[in-house]
Amino acid sequence: MITDHLLYGGEDFETSREVAEQIGKIITDHKLDRGLLYDLGSCRGDFAFGLNRACPNLRIVGIDYSLLRTWFARLRSVGINALTFLKADIFDVDVSKADICFIYLPRPMMPLIEAKLWNEMKPGSLVITYRVFYRLGARIRNF
User: Fold this and answer.
1) In what order do the strands lie in the sheet with 83-87?
2) 89 and 62 in contact (C-beta within 8 Å)?
3) Which side of the chain, N or C, has fewer Cβ within a 10 Å radius?
């Protein structure tokens, strides 16, 4: 059971290419398309790859706890310098350098993520969520 969790991670949430394009427009409108985005819970990297097409100058760091998902994303990203995938616990990763954090995680995790981002993210950074509501009042776009 523990091995399955480490290899495969938790739930598998997918973000469509269309949503990645919409988020790319928001990032460009905020003039952050040459910045650094952390995709917290990146899974197989589908969102990161879609966003890379919309914002090719944006540096994207995908973070996922699953070894298998991370390896798969890394294999897909060979030759794409703007994409990096890390196998890590999202709560152990320092997001203070991020211009943008993208979150599509289960609702029960949101209060913990909110506290982390509130404490670590720099002023002027952007938090974008997909299908989950985020309460923090600063520059946030909920989908």
Assistant:
1) 83-87, 59-64, 36-40, 100-103, 126-129, 140-142
2) no
3) N
Provide the token pair at 137.
């009042």
Instruction: Output phi, psi for 81, to 5 deg.
Output: -65, -25
Closest CA to 107 of 4, 10, 9: 10
Q: Which domains, and CATH codes, for the chain?
A: 2-135 (3.40.50.150)
How far is Cα 104 from Cα 142, in angstroms, rounded to an integer? 10
> pLDDT tens, 68-126?
999 999 999 999 999 999 999 999 999 999 999 999 887 788 888 888 998 999 998 99
- DSSP 8-state class, residue 122: P
